[in-house]
Design brief:
Length: 185
């Protein structure tokens, strides 16, 4: 199971800073940690699908794994990263946002995993990281920093139950025990 950035916001900021000079990778990072979509769905997005979207706009996608409908939402950070990407890369409408440097296709989820491992190693993070790190980072921060319920995160992830979401985010008995140490009264 992948470990994600639950211990510090500084790690997220450090990777953001590390990637600022690479518009494609920075956009992947920002879009991933701000939307909670699978890497396999992010890499298939073409520029024409997001061209002209503004803050608050949403784009429908069909998840490759489940075939279920989901959406990508453009928040302020995603919009800013997208604008920077467009200015620096000048993509054609049919270009994938996360275009492979070797082929005319998109990068693979496997490549995303290798990139994330490289980024986390660059800032000396210990643990296991991969393609799911983007998605798990979003879920963790929504719950821990923004108070989102497991039910709401479950709906976003298109999981069939909150129990699956809890397992996915690594909620274990020791966290329940820590919670039970909270004194009331």
């Amino acid at each position: 199971m992948s470990i994600f950035f639950k211990d510090c916001k500084e790690s997220v900021k450090a990777i953001s800073k590390l990637l600022e000079s690479n518009p494609r990778n920075y956009l992947l990072w920002i879009m991933g940690i701000n939307n909670g979509l699978r890497a396999s769905d992010l890499v298939r997005i073409k520029f024409s699908q997001v061209q002209g979207l503004k803050v608050g706009d949403a784009m429908k996608i069909i998840e490759t794994k489940t075939g279920k409908e989901n959406m990508l939402v453009i928040n302020k950070l995603v919009h800013k990263a997208l604008q920077s990407y467009v200015e620096k890369v000048e993509p054609d409408p049919d270009d994938y946002l996360f275009k492979s440097r070797k082929t005319n296709s998109h990068i693979s989820s496997h490549t995303v995993g290798k990139m994330i491992k490289s980024w986390t190693a660059s800032i000396n993070l210990e643990g296991q990281y991969g393609a799911h790190t983007l998605r798990k980072t979003w879920g963790y921060h929504q719950r821990a920093n923004h108070g989102a319920s497991f039910e709401l995160i479950c709906k976003r992830y298109n999981h069939s139950s909150p129990a699956i979401t809890m397992r996915y985010l690594g909620i274990e008995d020791k966290e329940v025990c820590r919670m039970l140490m909270n004194e009331i009264g």
